[in-house]
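Work Package 3 committed the consortium to producing structural models of liganded targets before the mid-term review. Because experimental data for this complex are still outstanding, the team generated a predictive model from sequence and the ligand definition alone, so that downstream docking and mutagenesis planning could proceed in parallel. The input record is reproduced below exactly as it was submitted to the modelling pipeline, together with the SMILES string for pyridoxal-5'-phosphate.
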Amino acid sequence: MQFPERFSDLPEYAFPRLRALLADHPAGGEVMHMSIGEPKHPMPSFVGQVIAQNLGGFGKYPANDGTPELLEAISGWIGRRYNVAVGPNRIMTLNGTREGLFNAALALSPETRNGARPVILMPNPFYQVYAMAALALGAEPVYVPATAETGFLPDYEALPPEVLDRVTIAYICSPGNPQGAIASREYLARLMALAEKHDFRIFSDECYSEIWRDTPPPGALDVANSTGTDPERVFVFHSLSKRSNLPGLRSGFVAGGPEGIRQIRKLRAFAGAPLPLPIQAVSVAAWNDEAHVEASRALYQAKFDLADRIFADVAGYRCPEGGFFLWLPVPDGEAATLKLWTETGLRVLPGAYLAREVDGINPGAGFIRVALVADHDDTERGLTTLHSCLYGRD
Ligand SMILES: Cc1ncc(COP(=O)(O)O)c(C=O)c1O
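The resulting structure, written out as tokens with the ligand in place, is given here.
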């Protein structure tokens, strides 16, 4: 029996690699998980009640595209958050952004570009589904460094025009996982001008948009609107996983141009898994409520302050502008991860597992990713332990 060749370049996913790295080594202390980005703040108090009230919905096949109430609630949220009018015909519900980032590429990336194999651009390091989408489509993934030199965002403008003319989709993530950088309005406007010039689409992964330090990150929809960019060029992905601490609910959306959304809906009418109706009802309540989001953000902001205090003396330390990961510089990310585990029981992720080696360089190799998802006291304990183990003092 044969298997497809197209995924053979893909390394194992980051977490099996982490398990393999640590497997033969006992933990050197009480185990604490700071490797997985699973939100742990309280979920909104209304979730149980809304599910109970809508329980009968599990007995029905749900509407594929989303109920009118859910599409309206999302449209209302976009209007309040970004001050831009995006009607329900420009929105498609998703089972979280991960599958959406994959399936939207399947729906929207053409088979060839200017007669050649298409290119899909992504930052390096990056959220791994972007590469999977490119490989599944037979497109060439191009990993563009998002390092200190480029403000931890990819510099797509620096790519040769012959590459840019083959691009079908450029992924961008803001606030970024793992680096925590926020794309400014200027950055997004320049990217849109590049997309207009070379005729490609932008997939803007904004699932961390509500977790920020000082100012709310700009959204690609809003920048597209103010720059007069063709709405068919820009697709944004949002989720309740991080905004509402509901990673297990599997609820999000993609918004973009009406024709692109029509194509995504068509693909999903054949092959998608619509959100169960009780989940759609909870999602309506979650998009309509900001109080729980503000409370959760305040908890993250207190943890950013904590990190600033603990790592103040670490050269190269940079507090994230948004999201909930620290991207900490170390001489060797795998060695640091192993040392932390064997000496303290703290579990973090080597940065190299979130990046690809290009021309002999893995831009994540000199970092570890540390998730600030636990409560304040546990986070303080974990970060203090980490600092003392890797940076010498506490
Ligand atoms: C950058 C980024 N995009 C997308 C996702 C997917 O999240 P979800 O499918 O829960 O919306 C994650 C999850 O960790 C992420 O970090």
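Reviewers should note the following from the model. Residues 37, 96-98, 127, 173, 177, 205, 207, 239, 241, 247, 252 surround pyridoxal-5'-phosphate (CB under 6 Å). These observations will guide the Year 2 experiments.
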